[in-house]
Known about the structure:
The protein is about 50% helix and about 20% strand. It contains ten helices and ten strands. It starts with a strand and ends with a helix.
Amino acid sequence: ELIAYHLEDGIATLTLNNGKVNAISPDVIAAFNAALDQAVADRAVVIITGQPGILSGGYDLKVMTAGPKEAVALVTAGSTLARRLLSHPFPVIVACPGHAVAKGAFLLLSADYRIGVDGPFSIGLNEVQIGMTMHHAGIELARDRLRRSAFHRSVINGEMFDPQGAVDAGFLDKVVTAQELQGAALAAARQLKKINMLAHKNTKLKVRKHLLEILDDAIVQDQQHLG
Length: 227
């Protein structure tokens, strides 16, 4: 399973499992959407996690380098997934077990609460380091979710952050030990289960209304520009 789905006590844990770097491919995004559909049907708080040491290293480079059509389709699907996570009707937590690079870091920026683990891990947007001009949707998501002092360093300079630096930058909300990650994520999910879900959904949509509109426009710009 590219995305393993485990439901217990109203908490749905989605675990990425696509090779050693958890590359985000079209099939992974399709599995993500199917899992989110199931989580909505189950009315569950969502926890997204990966394998020990890594959440995701970003988009599948084999797809990104296959041709413009393939790259545009993958970026469009990925940005649409980010938009879906930002507007998900139930709380979304990311339990980041290590590295989160490029699209992996954008998953962090698309969630409601983010927990990372202490250790020699890199979190951030390395697009310019590897010769990729940042896409419009990514820029706007980073602009909204990162601290102002970190936004330019992250997007323009490709600066990577250790977990504690990622808290200061705005990628993470909390850092725990690797042994504490699962327990911390479940504790956060149980706490979020206590809130009124209708109020959560409606407030989330109000708070993020401007961002969601900007992302809609940015996704269209990326299709035109990248194509």
